[in-house]
Structures are given as C-alpha cells and as structure tokens.
Design a protein that fits this description.
Layout lengths: L1 E5 L3 H12 L3 E6 L5 H9 L3 E4 L4 H4 L4 E4 L8 H8 L4 E2 L1 H5 L6 E6 L4 H14 L4 E5 L5 H7 L4 E5 L2 H5 L8 E4 L14 H9 L10 E5 L3 H9 L5 E6 L7 E5 L2 E6 L2 E6 L8 H16 L4 H10 L8 E6 L2 E5 L6 H9 L5 E5 L12 H7 E7 L4 H7 L5 E5 L2 H11 L5 E4 L12 H13 L2
Parallel strand pairs: 1-2, 1-4, 2-3, 4-5, 6-8, 6-9, 7-8, 9-10, 10-11, 11-12, 16-20, 17-18, 17-20, 18-19
Antiparallel strand pairs: 12-13, 13-14, 15-16
Helix pairs in contact: 1-7, 6-11, 6-12, 16-17
Pathway: Cell wall biogenesis; peptidoglycan biosynthesis
Subcellular location: Cytoplasm
Protein name: UDP-N-acetylmuramoylalanine--D-glutamate ligase
Length: 443
C-alpha cells in the first residue's frame, strides 16, 4: 500500500513514521520547505520526500493520501486526487484505527485550546495515562508509535474534521461556533457549522457530546439534525437535570446521577467564557469518574494557555495582556468582555471576513484608544474611527507597544487581541505573542 503525505510538518512527519511502521510505502511531498529537524527524522527513518514541489506521478499513484490541515481542498493537487478517486484523509482519520485508547475530541471556534489543556490537566492530575495532541503539541500519529497511552485528549480543527470518515471520539466537545475560516467554506457559515459537527457524526449511544447550550449556531444545528450520542449541555443561563451550569456563583454539574459543585471564585481561570471551558472539561472528568477533590484542586491550580489572555507584566500600574491567540472577532469579544479597566486595544492582521460591529458596544464601553497593527487596517478604521478618541496605525510590534505605553495611564490595561490572523507581519500567532511579550519587557 502506498501512502502519500502532503505537507512535511508535525502531522505529516508523524503520519509518515506511523505509516512506515505499519508497513506502508511512504512518500512525503511539501509544496514549501520542510524544516531541517523534520527532514532529519525522515532521513533517519528512510522515508522518501520532496520539497518546494508536488510531483504528480509520485503522488497520483497513491492508495491513500494524508493531507495536512493547512492545505485547502481547492489546491490543484488535492482536486486531482479527488478526481482520481484516491481517498484523502486527515492525520486523525489515518491514525485512529491504530490505537485502542479512549479518545476525547474537542473542537470549537474559540476556547478549544484552553478546554483541551484543562481537560488534559484534570486527567493527568488524577494519575491517568493520557496523551495530548491533534492541533497542539506532538502529532497524534507519532504518539501512537512512541507511547502507549490509555487516553488521548485531542484538539481538533474544522480542517482536521473535514478529513474524517470513520473517526469517532468516545467523548466529543463543541465549545462554541462563530464565523471563522469562512474563506475555506465557500463563505457559507452553514458549511463551517457542519464541519464542526462532523466530530459527532460517527458517535453511538455509548458516546457523549458535550456542548454549549447558549450557542445560537449549535442550537440551530440541533433543530434540523440529530446525533446518537448522549447529550451533556453546559450553560451560563439555563439549568439542567443532566449537564453543567452556573447558579449563585457555583458551578454545578450533574452527570449519570452524580453531582459536583464548586464555587466559581476558586476556579483559577477568569471570565465568563472560561467558566464554560471549565464546565466542559469538568464534565469529561466526571465521565472519567475522577474524584471530586482532585477535580477541585486541578481547577484551582490550572495555569492557563500561553497567548490566551496571558498577563505579561504590570508597568507603572498598567497591565499588559497578551491575547494573540484571538484570531477572530468572537475571541476578541471574550477578551474585551473580561476587561474591567479603560483599555488600549492593539488589533489587526489578516482579516478573515470579520464583522467588527459585534464588538461595538464593548469598544464604546471599555476602549479608550485603538492601535491598528496590520498591513490593511481600513475596515477597522471605518468601523471604529468615530467611536474612540485615539486611533493610530503602526507596522511593527515595537511601535505598537511603545505607542500603547504613551496612550495608557495608571490603572489602564493594554490588550493585544488582534481578531485577525497574523500572517501579514508575523510567522504565526505565537510569534506575534512572543514579539509582544518581548516588546513589553523592553519598555
């Protein structure tokens, strides 16, 4: 069997190693450059590869193709594969049959990384033999070769879910759905919503779907679709006999006739959206029958995720916060919503079809100045130009942070929450966040 892998990054190389181990003839093809450390791994494992091109006769003879999530379906080589009837899968779909581990799959437009890390933290603190993968950390396929975990917590993007056929997590979480990546879904929101719900399409009555019952897109999907999985909703406003909710500043969870309660003030994560992330992760912990004392301790000592509302430093009584991971409007909504002081907001980057009007009431209430950090800031300026007193355009992070320091006073917050992708000026949202933190430290 010939396995061809498009993309020589973490998921591609991980899949190559697993494929080789399982007796496939493996070939890796990357249209860009393959990083030196990955090349070395391919060479050591005797896996054939090419970079900066896709040689058709080496690809179209595949029995199966694993495509990295970053490659769109409309790229010419993928179109040709589909025309030729060659199955194109994601890493998750290819790798899952090679493990007997219980899989917890987490998707959503926002909150999925925090929920994934918190779920992993809860299970690991309880002494379970658990791996972390998918969209974060080490490749899932690679871990199946190197480790023997009983459980995996996988963060799954819509792109990874697009490439599944039989993949089935025992526990699935949909944290929320808001318009994102619409450029990959023919600018149709319903296509993106359907992609997220693929996480539950193969689930049976033995499985669970944990979801945000306050979310309009999720509620809309349930009006016209069903899943066989047992439903466990969570909400900030409703209460359930089976599910999770907040009442009188307590998180209350009831699953399989078992109750769990905890004062929200003891939960390390702050903000309403993080209460939802905590309810989702705790629901998993309850399903895995983790002791209440362990859950309470883990929720109170969780450190949070880098680049997600990360407090960097307080300088002259101004708090600097790195929320570089906010790559869409919905994520920035959560960030602005959790600000309690006058805010200097650094925003901008590659716009993915954003509607900034959703932020209008929060910007009027909380934002004193806007610093636009992007190649094209026209849309942001058009929407907020008349709303804030100060609006400034900059083209690098150092200028953004220096300007923010100038515009802020004692008791203010400087918030980097771009609401956009980072690729116009930075390598990634991580690079953007690191540059912000460095610039703040240099003040």
């Amino acid at each position: 069997m010939r396995l061809v892998i498009l993309g020589g990054g973490e998921s591609g190389v991980g899949t190559a190693i697993l494929g080789k181990k399982k007796g496939y003839e493996v070939f890796v093809s990357d249209f860009g450059k393959i990083k030196a450390n990955y090349k070395e791994v391919l060479i050591i494992n005797g896996i054939a590869w090419e970079e900066e091109k896709h040689t058709e006769n080496l690809i179209l003879n595949a029995d199966v193709v694993m495509k990295s999530p970053g490659i769109p379906d409309k790229s010419p080589i993928v179109k040709k594969l589909i025309e030729n009837g060659i199955p194109v899968l994601s890493e998750i779909e290819f790798a899952a049959p090679f493990t007997d581990a219980t899989i917890i799959g987490i998707t959503g437009s926002n909150g999925k990384t925090t929920t994934t890390m918190l779920t992993y933290h809860l299970l690991k603190s309880a002494g379970l033999n658990v791996g972390l993968g998918g969209n974060i950390g080490k490749s899932f396929a690679w871990q199946i070769v190197d480790n023997k975990y009983d459980l995996y917590v996988l963060e799954l993007s819509s792109f990874q879910l697009d490439g599944i056929k039989n993949f089935k997590p025992h526990i699935a979480i949909i944290t929320n759905i808001s318009p994102d990546h619409l450029d990959r879904y023919e600018y149709k929101y319903e296509n993106y919503i359907d992609a997220k719900f693929r996480i539950t399409m193969n689930q049976t009555e033995e499985d669970y779907l944990i979801y945000d019952a306050d979310d309009e897109a999720i509620a809309g999907w349930f009006k016209t679709h069903t899943t066989k999985a047992k439903l466990i909703p969570f909400s900030l406003t409703k209460t359930f006999s089976e599910g999770a909710y907040i009442k009188n500043n307590k998180m209350e969870i009831s699953i399989n006739q078992e109750e769990f309660t905890m004062d929200t003030e003891h939960i390390a994560l702050e903000g309403k959206h993080n209460m939802k992330n905590a309810m989702a992760a705790t629901s998993v912990a309850k399903l895995m029958q983790i002791r209440k004392s362990t859950i309470r301790e883990s929720l109170s000592n969780f450190q949070g995720v880098e680049h997600r509302l990360e407090k960097v430093l307080k300088i002259q009584n101004v708090q600097y916060i790195n929320d570089s991971k906010a790559t869409n409007v919905n994520a920035t909504f959560f960030a602005l919503d959790s600000m309690n002081t006058p805010t200097v907001w650094i925003v901008g980057g590659v716009d993915k079809g954003n509607d900034y009007n959703e932020l209008m009431s929060l910007v009027r209430e909380k934002v004193k100045a806007i610093i636009c950090l992007g190649v094209d800031n026209k849309k942001i300026i058009d929407v907020f130009g008349n709303v804030v007193d100060m609006m400034i355009e900059v083209s690098n992070m150092n200028d953004a942070v220096k300007m923010a320091q100038r515009l802020s006073e004692k008791g203010d917050t400087v918030l980097l929450s771009p609401a956009c992708a980072s690729f116009d000026l930075f390598e990634s949202y991580e690079d953007r966040g690191k540059q912000f933190k460095q610039a703040v430290k240099n003040l």
